[in-house]
Design a protein that fits this description.
heterodimer; A: mainly alpha; B: mainly alpha; 0% strand
Chain lengths: 307, 327
């Protein structure tokens, strides 16, 4: 599980938002220039394609127990077969769907909660800020995995919905803290003062004035939350807290471990889903890093001057 | 001292929150663990045991909820956690006592190593911005930090232990031996702990490198650093005593707040290596639906993290005079 180091973001200059297209255009251009970001985008596009085209790509039914167990890689079975005689490559391809959907949905919901809690804490101020901030810190410090395990154990093997709920419950606090810091630095800016003088109501100001100026941070938080979701889901499914009949990389690892794949001489059964998890995670992590550089110009790579 | 008072306030509020989550969870989640256990053991459990379990989990609704809550708080604070189903008839408290030192040792050591190493690498790569170190290490460790802890553990186990045979296959010491205070036992503990520790260091170091690098870059732009350069101080001195020393403070706070994430990963590492710590025990508790043990483990792990956070806060207060000023 990736370490997420929690530091209050220094007041960042919001990008000069003249038009929305201008902001998005600048973001797109900066992404194109960054090799890290391009790798992340390419990886995500690749996995999305695999997820959509799974029925076309996978040669066999992923559940079918029709082959000899523990075959090595061959032309018929690119990655060999499991102890149950299932085709590993087909399982891997079909698993892309759930793993990707889980990461994106859990990431989006967690981000939404982060935005609501973080921005309202900063904007409402006073006692509200104190209470919401304390609430955020408490959820930040409580170790997530034991909490996830206990919740998932009580919920029983409830499948994807339970996994998403558990991940969201434990994953929103990090973003909320970062968003609060940035929203605080925006609170007294002149354009918000102007909106207040114009007589706009708070919801309007938050949605149309504050949030557009935080776009790049919100995207970065979504990417961080998605990375967290990828790893958390894999961890929970690996220890058997998902639905074992689901097709996902974490569940594949669960079955591989339960059947002693490493000792039984089929390391590919363990290697392949792990590499996929790592690649999807790395895609989110690298994009996140690129967005960090984007929203904080001080961190952008420099060309060293020749002395 | 107001800083420490605020941090103490946070410590107790978080502890109370964790206790309360623990109390509420079994009451709001669907299903009845006591009945599930009855089914699991095909009625071999005496009705009395079921009743005890129901009381412990708050499933007997005869008492008002507030009274149950007070009873639960009283039991927990006096260390009365009930009996473990998995390790019957040991008490939950004893099981936790057995696992705790292993987890504290493994996670504590590897986290401190990762933090120290990550901080130094981050400092160096910010100092030589765009240099060789800066071009290679941060991106590499961003990628390794996306590895699932447990999967890296499996790979390390496969390569270094199964294939090359350099390290033992798991557990915390040679299973034939006994726990004793001798050099050979210490050697066993180190050789058994090396791989899990390596796994934790590799997957967690990226975060420390990145944040240290980022705060260091900001610090290097400060006027006092320019001043130090202008005075002609040696670069090593500026790097460690001027910039590094100040950049490390926010990193230390971040370190404390991130311990919860680290320990979560470490739990999975323990499971992969059959390391007899709290995480491994937690898995056994989950598999045998031992809710009393599960909840106590959650509390203990939270308490350990909170104490570490408090320690980091005290360290920060000692290092940073600004936190000591009354605001």
């Amino acid at each position: 599980m990736a370490v997420r180091v929690v530091i209050d973001v220094a007041p960042m200059e919001a990008p000069p938002a003249s038009t929305r297209a201008g902001v998005l255009g600048a973001v797109g251009l900066a992404l194109l220039r960054s090799r890290k970001a391009m790798f992340g985008v390419a990886m995500l596009a690749f996995f999305s394609l695999v997820a959509v085209l799974a029925p076309v790509i996978a040669p066999y039914d992923p559940h079918a127990l029709q082959f000899d167990p523990i075959l090595g890689p061959s032309a018929q079975h690119l990655l060999g077969t499991t102890s149950f005689g299932q085709d590993i490559f087909s399982q891997l391809v079909w698993s892309t769907r759930q793993s990707l959907v889980l990461a994106i949905v859990a990431g989006l919901v967690a981000t939404l909660i982060s935005v609501i809690v973080g921005v309202s804490a900063a904007y409402l101020g006073g006692l509200w800020d104190h209470v919401l901030n304390l609430f955020t810190d408490v959820f930040l410090v409580i170790p997530t995995l034991p909490l996830m395990i206990v919740v998932a154990a009580y919920a029983g093997s409830g499948g994807v919905a339970v996994l998403i709920a558990v991940i969201v419950l434990t994953g929103w606090s990090y973003g909320a803290r970062q968003l609060r810091s940035q929203a605080l630095s925006l609170r007294n800016r002149e354009f918000l003062e102007a909106a207040r003088v114009r007589g706009e109501r708070s919801p309007y100001i938050i949605v149309f004035e504050v949030l557009p100026n935080m776009t790049s941070l919100i995207v970065a938080i979504f990417l961080g939350a998605a990375l967290y979701a990828v790893l958390a889901a894999a961890g929970l499914q690996f220890i058997g807290l998902g639905d074992p009949n689901d097709l996902s990389w974490g569940t594949m690892l669960y079955w591989a471990q339960a059947n002693g794949a490493l000792l039984a001489g089929s390391p590919i059964w363990v290697l392949a889903p792990g590499i996929c998890i790592a690649l999807l995670g790395a895609a989110f992590a690298l994009l996140n890093y690129a967005f960090d550089e984007l929203s904080n110009p001080a961190l952008r790579p420099v060309r060293r001057k020749k002395a | 001292m107001s800083y420490l008072v605020r941090r103490l306030e946070f410590f107790f509020i978080t502890l109370w929150a964790a206790l309360t989550i623990n109390f509420i969870l079994p009451r709001v989640m669907p299903g009845n663990p006591a009945q599930a256990m009855l089914v699991r053991y095909h009625g071999r459990v005496s009705p009395q045991t079921i009743h005890t379990l129901e009381v412990a989990l708050g499933l007997n609704n005869h008492q008002p909820i507030f009274q149950q809550y007070l009873q639960y708080l009283g039991n927990t604070l006096t260390g009365n956690f009930g009996t473990s189903v998995t390790f019957f008839p040991s008490s939950v408290g004893d099981i936790v006592k057995q696992g705790l030192p292993w987890t504290l040792g493994l996670v504590g050591m590897s986290t401190v190593i990762a933090f120290a190493l990550g901080t130094v690498i981050g400092m160096l790569s910010a100092w030589r911005r765009g240099g060789f170190l800066d071009a290679i290490l941060p991106p590499v460790f961003i990628v390794t930090s996306a590895f699932p802890y447990f999967w890296l553990g499996l790979i390390v186990l496969l390569v270094l232990s199964l294939t090359l045979g350099w390290f033992p296959l798991g557990f915390a010491y040679d299973i034939t031996g006994s726990i004793e205070l001798s050099w050979s036992f210490v050697g066993q503990v180190i050789s058994h702990g090396f791989l899990p520790a390596l796994t934790i260091v590799i997957t967690s170091i990226g975060g420390w490198i990145l944040t240290m690098r980022n705060t260091m870059i900001t610090t290097l732009a400060e006027d006092y650093v320019k001043m130090a350069r202008a005075k002609g101080l040696s670069p090593v001195r500026i790097m460690f005593m001027y910039a590094g020393r100040n950049a490390i403070l926010p990193n230390l706070t971040g370190f404390a707040m991130s311990l919860g994430f680290v320990i979560s990963g470490a739990i999975l590492v323990e499971i992969v290596f059959n390391y007899p710590g709290l995480g491994f025990t937690l898995l056994q508790a989950v598999h045998s639906e031992d809710f009393a043990l599960m909840q106590t483990l959650f509390l203990m792990i939270t308490l350990a993290v909170l104490i570490a956070v408090l320690a980091a806060d005290i360290l920060t207060a000692w290092l940073d005079p600004r936190t000591r000023e009354a605001s």
